[in-house]
Design a protein that fits this description.
- The protein is of the alpha+beta class.
- The chain folds into two domains: 73 residues, Carbon monoxide dehydrogenase alpha subunit. Chain D, domain 4 (Ribonuclease HI, Chain A); 124 residues, Bifunctional carbon monoxide dehydrogenase/acetyl-coa synthase(codh/acs), Chain M, domain 5, CATH 3.40.1470.10.
- Helices cover 26% and strands 16% of the residues.
- A four-stranded mixed beta sheet has the order 8-6-7-9.
- Strand 6 and strand 7 form a beta hairpin.
- The mean pLDDT is 97.
- The chain binds iron/sulfur cluster and zinc ion.
- The site of zinc ion (ZN) has 5 residues, from loops.
């Protein structure tokens, strides 16, 4: 694949935000995947979805290509200089406000949590989804915070340069339930079939201390992974 797609539909309210949509990473609202963007471009070549040539690889593991960086600069009107498609820790993709989920670093756990838009409960970060949404949105790059479409979670490229899905230490139960078959398949792919049961959720864990105890008790792999930063 030498082309990703842009989506600038949300610039009406987040003027410096662009979604870069790859075959492995759909738009953060969940409504536009790579094929949708390709179809939209063929119907309306001057519309919000345009092909972006990847250009030369800079660091494909982190998800840097010259063409994407150039596009990110111009599409964000200079607000973003570089974008790493597959990292949350280094130059993560920006967000408008329509993300289906927020992924956020929990430094104490060497992992990340994933909070669903449908989840109104308190998270181990000491914030609810709506408070976090203010940090994740607005077209700003915030290392450690990322708005995503929920189907990006099951891609092999999900934060792959930071260690991938095994970094997930906490996840809203709404996500676990609505994607249970897909998540089971991810756990098998990651070589840890019981992985989903090792991930805490709001039904049992609402603070960092509870989360650390849960992770120890369930032998979560993030505890023995390389430091995430
Ligand atoms: S959130 Fe959805 S509609 Fe908005 S720019 Fe991204 S893909 Fe396009
Ligand atoms: Zn949006």
């Amino acid at each position: 694949m030498d082309e990703f797609y842009s989506c600038t539909l949300c610039q009406s309210f987040a003027p410096n935000h662009v979604c870069i949509v790859s075959p492995e990473r759909l738009g953060l609202c969940g409504a536009y995947n790579w094929l949708d963007c390709k179809a939209s471009f063929s119907i309306n070549p001057t519309g919000p979805n345009r092909p972006i040539k990847l250009g030369a690889p800079i660091d494909p593991a982190k998800g840097y290509w010259t063409g994407l960086n150039e596009y990110a600069k111009s599409g964000s009107h200079g607000a973003v200089q570089d974008v790493a498609m597959y990292s949350i820790m280094e130059n993560p993709m920006t967000a408008c406000g329509c993300f289906e989920s927020i992924v956020m670093l929990i430094p104490e756990t060497n992992g990340v949590m994933v909070v669903s838009r449908e989840d109104t409960s308190m998270t181990p970060a000491g914030m609810t989804f709506s408070t976090m949404a203010g940090m994740a949105g607005g077209g700003l790059q915030t290392p450690g915070v990322m708005g995503v479409g929920k189907f990006y979670l099951i891609s092999p490229k999900f934060i792959s340069s930071d260690g991938g899905f095994k970094r997930v230490v906490w996840m809203s139960s709404a996500l676990k339930e609505s994607m249970s078959d897909e998540l089971k398949a991810v756990a098998i792919r990651e070589g840890d079939p019981d992985l989903i049961d090792k991930i805490a959720d709001e039904r049992s864990v609402t603070t960092v201390d509870q989360l650390l105890a849960w992770l120890e008790e369930h032998n979560h792999p993030a505890l023995v992974m390389d430091p995430i930063f």
